[in-house]
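Intended use. Records like the one below are meant for learning the mapping from a protein sequence to its folded structure. Do not use them to infer anything beyond what is encoded.
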Amino acid sequence: MIGDAMTSLRTHYVEELKGLGGKEVTVAGWAHEVRDVGKIRFVLLRDRTGIVQITAKKGVVSDEIFDALAFPKETVIQVKGKVVEGGQSKRGMELVPSHVEIISRVTATIPFELTGKVPADIDVRLDNRYVDLRRLETQAIFKIRAEFMRAFREKLMELKFQEISPPSIVAAATEGGTDLFAVQYFEKPAFLAQSPQLYKQLAIVGGMDRVFMTSPVFRAEKHNTTTHLNEIVQMDAEMGFCDHHDAMDVLEKVFLHMLRSAKANCAPQFETLKTEIIVPKSVPHHTYTELVELLNKHGVHMKWGEDFTKENEKKLGELLAEEAFFIEEWPTAIKTFYAMPVKGNEKVCNAYDLMYRGLEISSGTQRIHLPELLIEQLKARGLNPADFEFYVNAFRMGAPPHAGWSIGIERITMQACRSANIRECTLFPRDRHRLTP
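Structure written out for the chain above:
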């Protein structure tokens, strides 16, 4: 059984009914479909694990039970009955009811068809997200997302990382720039955190050595794309006494473990979404320079020192034909101020991105742990070192070389599920225009 399915309202979830032929069970959920074909009434009952057909034939069930199976779709019901394997259901089993109870009636118009027979616009669905979450496809996405988050924690704990919880309210930009949401913090101005970056580094300086976290972050960027949100959840890791190669090695282990876990534990969900997950044996590495040259070779003009556009990322995925790959050795000028420049070639830094199915899902760097170099890089980007004094000062007290990375849970879920829009992969999305529900 799933945990403890048995409650005062149910004895089993739908997915637990297989193999229980002849046994009496109680299920509860929503009426997904209701059909009356004269002397037979069918109700498809849906819970979070699947759908079971309730079949009532006149003369087999009482008139009271037969009459009770007449209600609008999405009515919340409880049904007690006997599991019959085979029968008329395509699912290989059905439930013959002995008791039916309406728990909650539908008293408003359901805004769109949940069975998918009539497509609904994504904005209509998101405006009514609490209904959209009932769709089997939507539930499949969030089951896969939850499995990714579970596997992320599992692998990092296996690798001796410790979970921490950084603050979401900060006094200054954590990554530079001005795309911040300002908040009033008592008598002081403050901001919602763009990233847990500085704080996870301070944990390493504090001797915690290997840490990870899942944190909401906020970006006040005026995007209107299918791959950006203004509130996302980052899955971060940071490790001390290492360089970027060590951090990429851990990222690869975690990423592949997440894919393997989803493949093993979410097969029905991928089937619902009509897609599959592929787990590569390893993740190949390419330098930024190599990939710029590859694009230009194939007619996509790009200058060294520019960032890859989303179109270029997608093109690289097509050209390389790799499920996932790393891009490393980036131009220092287009990465964050704390990225460690390569010794002897300061125009390049120890930064890397992880690409998955044509989209960047993770980025990381070896961090600057030398305070003088950190101040130099802050000034080079027009940032005032005084605004980062608490951060810079930490490195004056003995800081080891360290590196880390972040995975966007919405993006990896989007790519694994082959969703067309990242808003599908967050419970209640926040973008430039959406603040409710």
